[in-house]
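REVIEWER CHECKLIST
Item 1: Sequence provided? yes
Item 2: Single chain? yes
Item 3: Sequence as submitted:
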Amino acid sequence: MAQKPGSKTPTKPTSRGGRPTKAEALRRRIEAVGVDPDQVDPRRVLAGIAIDPSASAAARVSACRVLLAHEARLAALVAAPAADEDEAPMPVDAVTERALALMSAGRGPVQ
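Item 4: Structure as written out by the authors:
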């Protein structure tokens, strides 16, 4: 909105203030930390929690359980050869297998 010449009324701001969207708030938090989320290794985070003496005992035990439960599966994923583009990737865990089974039940093959 253009201001009339000689007018004493200030111009209105072009954007309104207020609460940012969730996506904008997340983007600001990520920028504030200064870490690329794609570079974060969850196993290292869990290992850090497991060895942190200032963390609660429940947090340390939970981190150790997750690391132990997924150790064999992670080793199999690292050692597995790369799948061809024509082949569908194998489900990684029981939850994914169950979800795929429910999705394909009565609908034919999963696309």
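Item 5: Key structural point noted by reviewer: Residues 38-104 form one domain.
Item 6: Recommendation: ____
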